[in-house]
């Protein structure tokens, strides 16, 4: 490890000395530094602002919503969040208007 890398590790380890850390501890600190978790609010912002592109198939749009939802910590609310955002973000407003309001339950599992 070069001087810059060691300096970074030292700052990530403070007050502990890097020489006292185990290899897995070093890896975790560096991994967490280079791959920070985004706040849930930002993840949900991205999820709720996802809309279907004109050329995007419905299955592709739903797959993208599922991918985005994986970091939102919706818990038991996941299916409802997916359903709501799926309907609200549909490109075709004719489908959007007919889908949820005819007494049908939309199951997107």
Helix-strand blueprint:
Layout: H1 3-13, H2 23-34, H3 40-48, H4 58-69, H5 78-88, H6 93-98
Helix pairs in contact: 4-5
Number of helices: 6
Q: How much β-strand is present in the residues?
A: under 5%
Number of strands: 0
Question: How would a crystallographer describe the biggest sheet?
Answer: none
Dominant shape: elongated
- Supply the number of structural domains: 2
Cα-based radius of gyration, to the nearest Å = 21 Å
Distance between the termini: 47 Å
Helix fraction? 55-70%
Q: Structural class of the secondary structure composition?
A: mainly alpha
Low-pLDDT ranges? none
Average pLDDT level? 86
Helices and strands, in order, run as HHHHHH
């Amino acid at each position: 490890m070069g001087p810059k890398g060691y300096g970074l590790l030292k700052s990530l380890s403070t007050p502990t000395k890097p020489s006292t850390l185990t290899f897995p501890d070093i890896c975790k600190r560096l991994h967490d530094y280079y791959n920070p978790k985004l706040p849930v609010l930002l993840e949900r912002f991205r999820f709720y602002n996802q809309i279907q592109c004109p050329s995007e198939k419905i299955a592709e749009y739903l797959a993208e919503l599922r991918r985005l939802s994986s970091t939102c910590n919706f818990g038991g609310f996941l299916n409802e969040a997916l359903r709501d955002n799926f309907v609200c973000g549909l490109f075709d407003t004719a489908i959007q208007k007919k889908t949820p309001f005819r007494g049908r339950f939309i199951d997107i599992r």
